[in-house]
Amino acid sequence: MNNKNNNYKEECISYMSEVGLPLDCELIIDDKIHRYSSDQKKGKRDEWYIAHEGYISTDCYYLVCTFGSWSSGEQYKYTSFGKKKRIASTCLTNSKNSQGNKF
Q1: How far is CA 73 from CA 40, 65, 68, 88, in A?
Q2: Per-block average pLDDT, block size 10, for the chain (103 residues)?
Q3: For residues 101 and 11, what is the distance between their CA atoms, to the nearest angstrom?
Q4: CA 17 to CA 23: how far, in whole Å?
Q5: Of 48, 38, 86, whose CA–CA distance to 68 is shortest?
Q6: For the stretch 63-76, what's the b/e string if a residue is b when 16 or more beta carbons lie within 10 angstroms of its beta carbon?
Q7: Which helix (H) or strand (E) covers residue 86, if one does?
Q8: Which residues does 46 contact at the CB level (< 8 Å), separation at least 6?
Q9: pTM for this structure?
């Protein structure tokens, strides 16, 4: 992994901290969901992330990481090529669809 790739990982981890979901271990980039705890409740890993990397062309590396908290319903997305954004801020566990059914 070159310096640019490492910079993107560091920037992503920094963004996770900025929004209040700090990651205190290595960011694993393998397209799989990873659970972790961002607070003092280390036994309750209710935060998660999925990180993906690739190349648009030979010289254009990118990193995308979607992460959030199951307990708060927060969800964010870091991209190395664009703006970072908040995706959702409410928990869907008590939401109802148009037929009134919970999902």
Answers
A1: 18, 16, 7, 7
A2: 77 95 95 91 84 87 94 93 63 43 39
A3: 40
A4: 7
A5: 48
A6: bbbbbbbeeeebbb
A7: strand 85-88
A8: 35, 37, 69, 70, 71
A9: 0.75
